[in-house]
Specification:
17 helices; about 30% strand; 5-stranded antiparallel beta sheet; HATPase_C_sf; Beta-Lactamase; binds adenosine-5'-diphosphate; 5 domains
Length: about 625
C-alpha cells in the first residue's frame, strides 16, 4: 500500500477494517503486551469481552502464562522476526472451562514512526474443528488398519496399477507363504507364482473399470512351505476411491475354503463310488435268477429285484409298506415269525424254509436266507435276503421219504420173521449140541437187531419229516430209566459205563422216545471212542430241569461242526470217522424228540479229546 494513501485514510476506516475482518486480530503493546485493541473474533476466541482491553495479555488470559505464547511474543518483540504457527495447540478458558483449541496464527512486530518496535500484532484463525477431524481421521485409519491386521480373513490392499502391496495382514501373508518383506513390492514380484494365473489381470481390470470382482471357491496355486500347493478361496477385489472418486487402490479379502472344498470333493467322490457300487450290486441282483430283496429293520421291503416282483406279481408299491408275511402259508407263519424274531433279537443271519403263495396262487417251497447289514453302533440298517424256489427239491424229498417209509415198513415184517427163525435155529442147534453153528445163528440174530434199529431210524425220520411222529407223554422217573438203559448197554459194551450222578425226579415225556435218545448218546459215545474204555453218564437236577449227559474220551468234534451233527444225514467227515458205520440220523431224531418235548439238546467237545452230549427236559410240575 502506498504510504501516501495510508496517511490519507481516515483512522475510522482502519478501525472498521480491523473490527470487521473475519479473522481474529489484536494489537499487544509494550513488553507487557497490553491489549491495545482486540476485534470481536479474537475476543470470542479468548472467551472474553472488551473489558480485557487495556490489560496485559497474561492478566487477561492467565491460563496462557505457562504456555509457549508469552515467550514467542517476547522473541518477536525483541528480534522483530514475525512468527507463524500452524495448528498450534492452545489451552484457553472459555465460559469457565479449560479446553484445548488449535490455531493458525502470525505474530508480527508493530513499529512506531521512529521504526522502533512498540508492540506485536496478532492475526489468528481457529482451526480446532479441522485438527479434530484430522485426528479423528487418523484415528479411524489406525482402527481400520488394526481391523485389517487382526481380521479373521486374509486382507490386503494393493495401490496403483502396479498393485503395490501396501498392506497385508498376517493371514494374507500366510496364505501367500511369504513374510513382511513383500510389503511395498508389486504383487507380481511379491507372489511370483501368480504369473500365468488370472489374478493380476483381474486386479487390473477392477482398477480400470472400478467394478468389484468376487469369486467363490476359486482355485489358486501358491508356493507354501517351499512347494506349490492348490488352495481354494472365496475372495473379492474391491476398488478403493479417493475423494475425487478415482480408484487408487484395491482391497482384497479372501477366505481359505480349501478344507471345505476338499472334503466336499471327497464326499462327492465317495457318493459317486457308492452310486457305482450300488449300480453294480443292483445289476448283480437283477441278473440273478433268485428272488433278491432288502428290507428295513422292521421287515418291510426296501428293494425287490425284478424276479421277486414277477414271482409274486407285485409292483414297487409294495416297497416300504409290506413284508413277506402276506405270502407265507398260514401253517408256516408261526415258525417263520419265531425265526425272524430270534434273528432280530440277535441281529444275526437266518435261514428258513416255508411255503409262499406265488402269482398263480400256488404255495411253493422257498428257502430264504437273510443277513443283517449293521451300522457302526451295531444296529440293523437293513436286511439283505435271497429266496430260492426249492419246490422240486421238496417234492423229491417227499418222494424219497415216502419211499423210505414204505420200504422200511415192508422190510420190518420179513425181518421180524428172520429174527424169529434165527432164534429158533439158535435154540435147536444148542439143543443138538452144535454150539459152533449155534454161534452163527446168534450172530445172525445180533445183525438182525442192528438192521431193525437202522430201519427203525429210517421210519422215524420219515415220520418226523411228514409231521407224523407221535409222543405218548407220561410222568416217569428218569433216574430209573437211566439205570435200566446203562445196565442193558453195559452187557454188550467193552467200555466201562460209569453213572457218576443220578439224582433227578420225574419228567413228563414219552418214555420210549427219551430212552431212544439216551441209547443213541450211549451207543455214539462207545462208537466214536474206539481207543478209550470209559464213558461217564450223569443226570442232574437244576431245580427246573433234569440235565442228562454222556461223556466220552474219543474222537471229539471240530468246533464248526458241533451244531451240524443234529442235522438230518449229517456225519462228520474224517479218516477215522469214515471207518465207523452210521446213517447220520440218530442225533437228528434225538434233537427232534427233545425239542418236541420242550427240552434242549447240545454238545460240548474238543477234537481229539472227547465229547459230552447233553439234553435237558423240564421237570414235572406235579413232582416239584
Ligand atoms: P451216526 O452215528 O449214525 O452217523 P448220529 O446222528 O448219531 O449218526 O451222529 C451224527 C454224527 O455226529 C456222527 O456221524 C458223528 O460224526 C458225530 N458224532 C455223534 N456222536 C459223537 C461222539 N460221541 N463223538 C464224536 N462224534 C460223534
Amino acid at each position: 500500500m502506498d504510504n501516501q494513501y495510508y496517511e490519507k485514510i481516515k483512522p475510522e476506516s482502519l478501525i472498521n477494517l480491523f473490527s470487521q475482518a473475519p479473522v481474529a486480530l489484536a494489537m499487544l503493546m509494550g513488553k507487557d503486551f497490553v491489549i491495545e485493541s482486540a476485534n470481536e473474533q479474537i475476543l470470542q476466541i479468548w472467551g472474553k469481552d472488551d473489558s480485557v482491553i487495556g490489560l496485559p495479555l497474561v492478566e487477561a488470559l492467565p491460563e496462557i502464562k505457562d504456555q509457549a505464547f508469552p515467550d514467542i511474543l517476547l522473541e518477536v518483540y525483541e528480534t522483530g522476526k514475525p512468527f507463524r504457527g500452524y495448528k498450534v495447540s492452545c489451552f484457553l478458558e472459555r465460559k469457565g472451562v479449560l479446553g484445548e483449541y488449535f490455531f493458525d496464527f502470525v505474530y508480527s512486530p508493530v513499529y512506531d514512526n521512529a521504526n522502533q518496535i512498540i508492540g506485536v500484532s496478532v492475526v489468528a484463525t481457529e482451526v480446532t474443528s479441522q485438527v479434530k477431524s484430522e485426528e479423528q481421521l487418523a484415528d479411524s485409519e489406525l482402527r481400520f488398519k488394526n481391523l485389517i491386521l487382526n481380521a479373521d480373513y486374509s486382507i490386503a490392499i494393493y495401490r496403483g496399477l502396479d498393485m503395490i502391496v501396501e498392506l497385508a495382514n498376517d493371514k494374507m501373508l500366510r496364505t501367500w507363504g511369504k513374510d513382511r518383506s513383500v510389503i511395498g513390492m508389486p504383487l507380481e514380484k511379491a507372489v511370483p507364482e501368480l504369473e500365468g494365473q488370472p489374478f493380476i489381470d483381474l486386479l487390473r481390470k477392477v482398477y480400470t473399470t472400478g467394478e468389484t470382482y468376487s469369486a467363490t471357491e476359486d482355485r489358486a496355486d501358491l508356493i507354501v512351505d517351499g512347494k506349490l500347493q492348490t488352495y481354494f478361496y472365496n475372495f473379492s477385489y474391491k476398488p478403493i476411491r479417493n475423494n475425487r472418486n478415482e480408484v487408487y487402490a484395491i482391497l482384497n479379502m479372501a477366505v481359505n475354503v480349501t478344507d471345505m472344498v476338499n472334503s466336499r470333493k471327497k464326499l462327492q467322490e465317495k457318493s459317486e463310488k457308492l452310486r457305482l457300487s450300488e449300480a453294480k450290486y443292483k445289476g448283480l441282483s437283477e441278473a440273478m435268477p433268485q428272488i433278491v430283496w432288502t428290507s428295513a429293520a422292521n421287515g418291510n421291503f426296501s428293494y425287490l429285484n425284478e424276479r421277486a416282483k414277477e414271482y409274486f406279481d407285485i409292483t414297487d408299491d409294495f416297497i416300504g409298506a409290506k413284508n413277506f408275511s402276506i405270502f407265507i402259508h398260514p401253517e408256516d407263519l408261526p415258525k417263520v415269525e419265531k425265526v425272524w424274531k430270534k434273528a432280530v433279537k440277535k441281529k444275526s443271519h437266518y435261514e428258513i424254509e416255508y411255503r409262499a403263495k406265488n402269482k398263480s396262487g400256488e404255495y411253493i417251497w422257498l428257502l430264504t436266507r437273510a443277513v443283517p447289514d449293521l451300522d457302526e453302533d451295531g444296529n440293523v440298517n437293513q436286511w439283505i435276503g435271497t429266496s430260492i424256489d426249492i419246490n422240486e427239491l421238496k417234492i423229491l424229498q417227499a418222494q424219497k421219504d415216502t419211499f423210505l417209509g414204505i420200504a422200511s415198513h415192508e422190510l420190518k415184517t420179513p425181518l421180524t420173521s428172520i429174527k424169529l427163525y434165527a432164534q429158533v435155529l439158535d435154540r435147536m442147534l444148542t439143543k443138538q449140541g452144535d454150539s459152533k453153528t449155534a454161534e452163527y445163528a446168534k450172530k445172525m440174530d445180533e445183525q438182525v437187531v442192528k438192521l431193525t434199529s437202522l430201519i427203525g431210524d429210517l421210519l422215524d425220520v420219515t415220520k418226523i419229516n411228514s409231521g407224523k411222529i407221535q409222543l405218548n407223554e407220561d410222568n416217569f422217573n428218569i433216574a430209573e430209566l437211566v439205570d435200566e438203559i446203562v445196565e442193558e448197554q453195559q452187557l454188550t459194551s467193552r467200555h466201562k459205563i460209569t453213572v457218576e450222578k443220578n439224582s433227578v425226579g420225574t419228567v413228563y415225556a414219552d418214555k420210549h422216545r427219551v430212552s431212544q435218545v439216551i441209547t443213541n448218546f450211549l451207543t455214539n459215545a462207545v462208537k466214536y471212542s474206539p481207543n478209550a474204555d470209559e464213558v461217564i453218564v450223569r443226570s442232574e437236577n437244576d431245580g427246573a430241569n433234569m440235565i442228562f449227559s454222556v461223556r466220552d474220551f474219543g474222537l471229539g468234534i471240530p468246533d464248526n461242526k458241533k451244531d451240524k451233527v443234529f442235522e438230518q444225514y449229517y456225519r462228520v467227515s474224517g479218516e477215522e470217522q469214515s471207518t465207523i458205520p452210521g446213517l447220520g440220523l440218530g442225533l437228528f431224531i434225538a434233537a427232534q424228540i427233545i425239542e418236541r418235548s420242550n427240552g434242549k439238546i447240545w454238545v460240548e467237545s474238543t477234537l481229539g479229546k472227547g465229547s459230552t452230549f447233553f439234553f435237558s427236559l423240564p421237570l414235572s410240575e406235579r413232582e416239584n
